[in-house]
Write a structure and sequence with these properties.
Blueprint (H helix, E strand, L loop, with lengths): L26 E2 L31 E2 L12 E8 L13 E11 L13 E3 L3 E4 L8 E5 L10 E6 L6 E4 L3 E3 L13 H4 L3 E10 L25 E6 L18 E11 L2 E2 L3 E3 L5 E9 L12 E7 L4 E4 L6 E12 L4 E3 L3 E2 L2 E11 L8
Antiparallel strand pairs: 1-2, 3-11, 3-12, 4-11, 5-10, 6-7, 6-9, 8-19, 9-18, 12-22, 13-22, 14-21, 15-20, 16-17, 16-19
Length: about 375
Amino acid sequence: MKTSRLVLVLLSMSALVLGCEEETEDVVYSCDDPDIGHFDSKGNPDPCHLEGKGQQQSVCRGGCEEVSLEFERTIVALWVGPEGREPACPKQAPKAVFNGYAGLLAPNTCPPCQCSEPSCVLPSVSATAGDACAGSIVGAFEPPPAWEGGCLAGPPLEPGTFSSVHIGAPSTAGCELVEDPVPPPHFAYAWPAQWAEAARACAAEEEEGAPACAGAPCVRGIEELPAGFRRCLRYPEGTAESESQACPAAFPERRVFFAGLSDTRECAACSCAPPEDAICIASVDAFQDATCAGAPMPLFQNVPVGMNSPVCYDTSMPLALGSISATWLAEEPGSCVVTGGETIGEAVPTDPSVFCCEPLVIPAE
């Protein structure tokens, strides 16, 4: 194999392929003694008489790279910079062969679930027809929302129309899921993945025929590149970083970029349950009149009632029921039981490409 300027002879079976060193463009042929004036039957240059051998002519315009042939690689012009600012490929290597990213920035934290504040709720009072709170309900005092225990009048019940009074147990309210903000169902819509760096690899147009450099990367005239690009060797597509070999000395800087992303991140749905540690104890009064004045005599006063412990009060004589009141003996609503909001899944970069690059030269100021 010889260049048209007789710069050097390339040995096709060598483990190292020597490069063309002249600054002008050299043409490397796949034979040692090219017949420069010979053409094939179609009128195309065929200096190595490959048509008669059933082969196609291939030349490397620019020179063959001096690298070890331990694995198959391709010379590319690589640009690395901020995502979204990828430039067009340079004229020396106009074909974009890879677009990828590095430095995955994918937040994996869900916002906290929020529940409304819990509160203790005073009990209701009802009158029943039978003793021991048996029989039908003949009248009831249902406290309005947020009742604080002040005098509450209801439809008056005349003496002899009921035999007992049922005082319900205090309860808790609140602990409702706060709708804003509720963790979104999927990160892809709320927190899309971002990358610290973007990369674009560009290559020269492929030339038909057998390799002219005995398997070594052909520079194809991309030695001189515009600012922001540098020459790199690219491993075959699909080569994992763990499978790639060490970079050669001429291209020592190893970079890995990813063309894809598998994003399964989600936030578990939030839910709120009533407190398990609440202590709500009320003192309840019942009066015959409608103003809680105590005249005539109260039906009962200061009857304590706790959570999960309703009270039944049997009347010893026919009395009326006109109003009720209540106060708190203990008002400790506790804390809501919040579940959900955990991160499910993860974001993982996929489809890696491994590059070995020339050292980055920073121009002196």
